[in-house]
């Protein structure tokens, strides 16, 4: 990984879901083409947004009518996984060349390496029990509940605190680049969140909520106090720098990134055809 000892660092606060997913793809394309250096981006969502995994069926994952009534956005990610409610959190995305020295070709091993940045960030916040989850379950057992909720149980190498899932990440390979992005929640509004997810009946919804309360946690729940977003932002930046042995240089979006992002919003992420696919 020493080929790139300095990465670009970008912040984009308070933007809609279509913008964020389009920008992640635009960055992946330009990094893959060698036009941009490896990049860490931190961002927040405005309005709060539900993001669907690439292959999820919308009607079986979220209640679109409740989302509309509550003013919640809906977007589909270029990565897999289950639905995430982006609300009281910071989201990160890492984009780097897929062939970069020091980055494993295996998706599983690359995921494990990059997620060490989250472990370091949580340790900096004082959550020393944060670690990567060592899954003993098969994929078949993990999807047995048929729940749309990403945070209901941890997958292999995801970040956990005392066994409870504390951050959700997904990875995609696009245009010769590796994109990993993930949700880092400060806290949850469980009542609102479970109104937004699709369940066939109230009993199933209540059962899923009880399961979530046993298997998921947040930064503030772990620390027992309020944490400012600025504190989390600083910890994430420093955590990834430590884990990957790099330094970050403040950067701005390029004109080409902005143009490609707007094109992807208009043609893909901002369209019903993509969201409802």
TrEMBL record:
<feature type="domain" description="BPL/LPL catalytic">
    <location>
        <begin position="34"/>
        <end position="248"/>
    </location>
</feature>
<dbReference type="GO" id="GO:0009249">
    <property type="term" value="P:protein lipoylation"/>
</dbReference>
<dbReference type="GO" id="GO:0016874">
    <property type="term" value="F:ligase activity"/>
</dbReference>
<keyword id="KW-0436">Ligase</keyword>
<dbReference type="GO" id="GO:0140096">
    <property type="term" value="F:catalytic activity, acting on a protein"/>
</dbReference>
<dbReference type="Pfam" id="PF21948">
    <property type="entry name" value="LplA-B_cat"/>
</dbReference>
<dbReference type="InterPro" id="IPR045864">
    <property type="entry name" value="aa-tRNA-synth_II/BPL/LPL"/>
</dbReference>
<protein>
    <submittedName>
        <fullName>Lipoate-protein ligase A</fullName>
    </submittedName>
</protein>
<dbReference type="InterPro" id="IPR050664">
    <property type="entry name" value="Octanoyltrans_LipM/LipL"/>
</dbReference>
<dbReference type="InterPro" id="IPR004143">
    <property type="entry name" value="BPL_LPL_catalytic"/>
</dbReference>
<dbReference type="GO" id="GO:0016740">
    <property type="term" value="F:transferase activity"/>
</dbReference>
């Amino acid at each position: 990984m020493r080929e790139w000892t300095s990465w670009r660092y970008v912040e984009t606060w308070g933007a809609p879901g279509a913008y964020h997913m389009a920008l992640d793809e635009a960055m992946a394309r330009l990094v893959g083409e060698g036009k941009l250096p490896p990049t860490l981006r931190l961002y927040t969502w405005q309005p709060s947004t539900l993001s669907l995994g690439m292959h999820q069926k919308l009607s079986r994952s979220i209640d679109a009518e409740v989302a509309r009534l509550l003013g919640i956005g809906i977007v589909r990610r270029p990565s897999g996984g289950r639905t995430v409610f982006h609300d009281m959190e910071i989201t990160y995305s890492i984009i780097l060349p897929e062939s970069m020295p020091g980055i494993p070709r295996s998706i599983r091993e690359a995921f494990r390496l990059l997620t060490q940045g989250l472990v370091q960030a949580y340790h900096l916040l004082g959550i020393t029990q944060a670690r990567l989850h060592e899954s003993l379950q098969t994929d078949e057992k993990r999807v047995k509940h048929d729940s749309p909720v990403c945070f209901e149980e941890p997958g292999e190498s995801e970040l956990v605190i005392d066994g409870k899932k504390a951050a959700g990440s997904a990875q995609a390979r696009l245009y010769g680049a590796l994109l990993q992005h993930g949700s880092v929640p400060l806290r949850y509004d469980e009542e609102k969140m479970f109104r937004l997810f699709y369940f066939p009946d109230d009993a199933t919804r209540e059962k899923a909520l009880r399961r979530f309360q046993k298997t998921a946690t947040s930064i503030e729940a772990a620390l027992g106090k309020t944490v400012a977003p600025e504190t989390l932002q600083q910890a994430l930046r420093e955590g990834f720098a430590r884990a990957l042995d790099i330094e970050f240089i403040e950067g701005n979006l390029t004109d080409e990134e902005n143009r490609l992002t707007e094109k992807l919003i208009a043609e893909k992420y901002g369209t019903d055809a993509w969201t409802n696919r």
